[in-house]
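One chain given next:
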Amino acid sequence: MNYIILTILFSFCTVFTTVAQTEAIDEISKASQAVSTVQADFTQTKRLKMLNDAMVSKGKMWCTQPNHLRWEYLTPYASLFILNGEKVLFKNSKHSNTLNANRHKRIREMIRIMIPSNLGKILTEKKDFHTSIENTENQYVLTMIPQNKEMKQMFTRIVLYYNRKQAVVTQIEMYEKNGDSTTIELSSIKKNTTINPSVYNIQK
């Protein structure tokens, strides 16, 4: 009898969770599609397992849907990543390199995560990630387990913190296979403001 009751309760909870998760995905997908541009400051903390240490970097990001992104590190060292359509620029004080994102699967996969409008598609395409969603009062916490080869080689899981009031991801945690991890926190977020296209100019 107890076994039957537990089975019924478990089944009910499973259905409830599935419904709640579907509603969360629908909410995130609709909100993500409504975002045309995003500007923000960011703080990136890289934790190295072998050194038991953390490296903190700060900078600014600009994003225009569907395929323009500027990720600029200001401290402690200046470096730059720009996505302009299919072209990608990596630049620091010593080197500059331009390549085609479509020819580099790992870069393409990382870009997908960073572009807000892709989030809804990522959540619904289970071939890329298996996602569980925790619903708190102010945010959704999305734990994404990579399913495709490229992402599996880099990460064991990626956790996104989606602020429901702002309708945008405010924090990203990436856990690597070697035990290292990276946390990116976004602040001073501005959505749907005009961004000068020159921000995405790729110049060596």
